[in-house]
Amino acid sequence: MDHKEGHYKVRDLGLADEGRKRIEWAESRMPVLMELREEFADEKPFEGYKISGCLHVTKETAVLVETLQACGAEVAWSGCNPLSTQDDIAAALANGGTEIYAWHGLDTEDFYWCIERTIDTPPHLTLDDGADLIFTVHSDHPEMADHIIGGSEETTTGVHRLRAMDNDGELQYPVYAVNDAETKWDFDNVYGTGQSTIDGILRATSTMIAGKNFVIAGYGHCGRGVATRAKGMGANTIVTEVKPAKALKATLDGHQVMSMDEAAEKGDIFVTATGMKDVIRGRHFLKMKEGAIVANTGHYDVELNLEELAELSTDAREVRENNREYTMENGKRVYVLGDGRLVNLAAAEGHPSEVMDMSFANQFRAHLDLVQRHESDAMLEDKVYDIPQDMDDEIAEVKLRTMGIQIDALSDEQEHYATDYSAGT
To answer: What residue stretch is flagged as signal peptide (predicted)?
Structure first.
């Protein structure tokens, strides 16, 4: 393990050159973020501000980190999931001078040790994926909150945690729910999760998707994306849900809908995308076919109850990278991918750069807004906030322009008609 106190702790600094090539590839696919870098590099609006981040260490994240740095920020970073850090990317960032503490295969103690190192010097801003950094500040270093002017949250699970804190009056500084921006959840969550989850399954199994019974637990944005991609590859898609309206949507989108108890007997491949614990439990594993493949694409591994699976098993072994075979007491084998961690990052590279371009542009703009508010004494209250609509629209417009796509605009007369409640039949 390469370790330089106060600067970085990564797996192998010798991987830096390979990581740098992958970062440069991501830059070529992230024109919105690169345009923001070019626009604000001279002005350096983040000069004098430290941003502590806890987010998957991927090539796309590296483009965000280096964009923040190019615009003046001091950055300290850790990975937000034990299996999602890409060691060559961590090495490239460390080699370039970024303070980073991240490596693939962290245990729980190391995971929180890395977070703690990023806040040894209190930050002005926090950037989260899952809210573990924000929660660490609030639970272990509440005095630090007075120094922090704001933060942002990248993913659905984290936003749910933060809204619960907000509702209980426990949030100590304002946080932008980046996940809830339309240019994030309707692209990153749907298209990004859909494609990268299938990518992770294929890398870990090399299995055939076509003709398989593919069970998706949860039909939110992420589950819908996975179901759409699986169906497009020829799978027979089955959705399980707890919310009636989402179950109806899945039905009308052409998927079978049933309970997990019923689906467990039918599925060949299972993916959980709910944000809830114990979605697949011991009783479900016992019902599965011989050779069933089980994966999770939610932020935490609690969606699969692997403790109950272990208790029901007589043997477990890794048969491929990120693919663990459990032989149960009934003689049947099931295969769990990425040890139940989010399969698109544990077994693949995460979302495509093109969708992360918009997600991370939202992150950049959210932090820019927080800094500008701080400097103009127009700070937000200690609550969770949505990304402003005009910011969301601006990012979509830039993305379209970089794709060479032009759209229509309303005329003045149409603008007037849109708000003219007297216009009738």
So the answer is: none
